[in-house]
Amino acid sequence: MNKHDPHEQLNLDELRDETLVVHGDDWVTNDGTVAPAIYYSATFRAQNSAQFAEMAGTSRHPRYYTRYGNPVHERVKKIMAELEGTETALVTGSGMGAIATTLLTLVSAGDHVIAQTRHYMSTAKIMDEMLPRFGVEVTLVEQADILAFEAAIRPNTKLIMVESPANPTLVITDLAAVVELARPRGIIVVADNTFASPINQRPHDLGVDVVIHSATKYLGGHHDLTAGVICTSEELAERIWQTHISIGSVLSPMDAWLLLRGLRTLPLRIERINANALALAKFLEEQPQIERVYYPGLPSHPQHELAKRQMRGFGAVIALAIKGGYEETQRFVSALKLIPNAVSLGGIDSLVVHTAAMWEGVMTEEQMRTAGIPPNYVRLSVGIEHIEDLKADVLQALQAI
Ligand SMILES: Cc1ncc(COP(=O)(O)O)c(C=O)c1O
């Protein structure tokens, strides 16, 4: 340890999230800047041939070739590993890049995977279509039913994929119970933690092996980048990285820099988002035009007790069922003035989508039924705006149905 470098003496594990996101990466590039520099270079110069050999031979080297690593990636990785409590992290060009790379690393022909009936649509496609093409058997289970996970386990079960809360209906998976089933049998558990964020939920603390994020959502937080993050052990990260460099889902240095900037305010934003979403969910429950509100923070959510046990806050996303059908739901969404009709979630701006309209182009009716998406569902992602302005916009749109 260099006693003249105070950063070397910082114990990151002792820092609270608010401090970690600001200072957790301070010394990573050690280049004297306060704001992080963007290393906009695809390749890095070696000082001599011996150093080149060392760079080429080092796994996950941050200054060799940007598909392999980049100094800005390094900063994001450091903060994310600390936030999720894992040994290390990897970054990818999108959340799907992270999910696909992880699954293609960890399973092989002849293996069996257990996943949920409700997953983000592209993850569901990997389970339904891609893995079976490569000779991997997949069983989909109702995620709220832990006995269904147990019943699905086979001698060749290699991996359990969970997503909680699940897109779009906010059903919760009991993460600790899944780990309890998986661990004694040597089954790897992968959790998509996108809908919670590491501020609201830390699956690795409950024993999950790989924690994945679409960093396009809360982590970036401003709807201006796409990125993915994989938080895991050194051993699994090394294996996943080997696939990553072949698949090439690379995060651009600019997007990594934007992600880093987004991370600085993550705890602040999540605090506001949690408060806004809970207040709006309660407000919506009182409106006569609403059939049902689904939000894990509401006592009316069927898994509220479980949500309270494994989450520290309940996030941005509220699912609503509007009284009526497809047409009434379309009218509600169109009448919103402040809240744009746009996909994605977890950013500073509130966003709304009519779930059936979003997915009817890419899912069959059967797939929509399996995923639990009736025609009158709305997904509302609550941002950091003033709560009274959000309430007013929602109210006038409900009255316009
Ligand atoms: C839960 C979840 N996982 C993964 C993804 C995919 O992330 P990306 O769009 O960054 O590829 C999404 C995107 O909406 C998502 O909601």
Write up this protein:
GO terms for molecular function: homocysteine desulfhydrase activity; methionine gamma-lyase activity; pyridoxal phosphate binding; transaminase activity. This is homocysteine desulfhydrase. InterPro entries: Cys/Met-Metab_PyrdxlP-dep_enz (IPR000277), Cys_met_metab_PP (IPR054542), PyrdxlP-dep_Trfase (IPR015424), PyrdxlP-dep_Trfase_major (IPR015421), PyrdxlP-dep_Trfase_small (IPR015422). The protein is of the alpha/beta class and 401 residues long. It folds into two domains: 259 residues, Aspartate Aminotransferase, domain 2 (3-Layer(aba) Sandwich), CATH 3.40.640; 134 residues, Aspartate Aminotransferase, domain 1. It is built from 15 helices and eleven strands. Strand 4, helix 7 and strand 5 form a beta-alpha-beta unit. The protein binds pyridoxal-5'-phosphate. Pyridoxal-5'-phosphate binds next to helix 4.
